[in-house]
Amino acid sequence: MSNFLTEKYTKLAPYVPGEQPKDKKYIKLNTNESPFPPSPLAVKLANDEAKNLMLYSDPDSRDLIKEIALYYGVNTNQVIVTNGSDEVLNFAFMAYCDSKTPAIFADITYGFYKVFADVNNLPFKEIPLKQDFTIDVNDYIKEDGTVFIANPNAPTGIKLQLTEIEKLLQSNPNRIVVIDEAYADFSGESMVNLVDKYDNLLVTQTFSKSRSMAGARLGFGIANAKIIEDLNKIRYSTNPYNVNRMTASAGIGAIKDKEYFASNVEKIIKAREYTQKELTNLGFSLTDSKANFVFTKTEKIDGETLYLKLKEKGVLVRHFSKPRIKDYIRVTVGSIEEMQTFIEKVKEILEK
Ligand code: PMP
User: Fold this and answer.
1) Does ligand 1 have an atom closer than 6 angstroms to the CB of 84?
2) CATH 3.40.50.11260 is the classification of domain 40-256
3) Is the whole model's pTM more than 0.70, yes or no?
4) Above 90 in pLDDT, residue 19?
């Protein structure tokens, strides 16, 4: 740290992304990416667009927003596109939290929420998940503030019933509820079609997981038009060209290629079920994950040792040191072949 960094940032603890090691080739099951390449149509459209890179991108991403709106059955003024869904989430912290309106989120959830609060100097309150890692919406209904819920949650993968979220939305129409649906495509349920019913609902999603575009950085928010207007005000005040030309074109291809998307999601769900079954047979306990990862522990070996031994064997998973979840590992669901290798390596480790 230099002596020049202003005081407000000296104690900031930044988000720690999962490792992206280059020392050897790993089976990479640590950052919830897709094992499948992006849709061929996405790649083609991005390639075609490369020749136009001397021009700024469309600050309103009109062509892309048109496709997203069509796909989700909303109006174009109900969609904002961003540089990953991290960006729209950050905008929501900026727009809807302040000293009088804290951010409210779970103690075990996406680690970036706390960082977004900290970097923007916003108060926040962490609500403990229940013992079994589920959310009791009554704990949130009691609080004043802007609620952020990942559904399915990370890193547990547990899904909250939409009717429960509706109770929260109804309990206080003056409170914004942000539902982070980064993993919703793997759970088969979304709140997107409720944005016309609830003016206080903002749903965020990403192209990083189910659409195999983590490296392109593309996310979006869907809400009523006034909320989108708020978020665009912040976007125009930070980076109007937040979605680059190649990414916007790739996004159009990914949305249009419905069959490729559906077939990949189905493969991931099958591989998730395989992994859950095999781990259960090996005596592991698992949360009921509806995401593209499983969250699991065993009495036979602690989470950190298992993570380290798997890494030695060329399989990268994620371990978190937070006390409540330190016994667990989170394993991204890759292709069925990758999951078979993962299970083999786990068996080898347990047999020793
Ligand atoms: N929300 C959750 C719950 C996540 O796990 C992630 C991925 N790390 C994101 C949002 C952000 O993903 P991206 O910025 O790639 O869209």
Assistant:
1) yes
2) no
3) yes
4) no
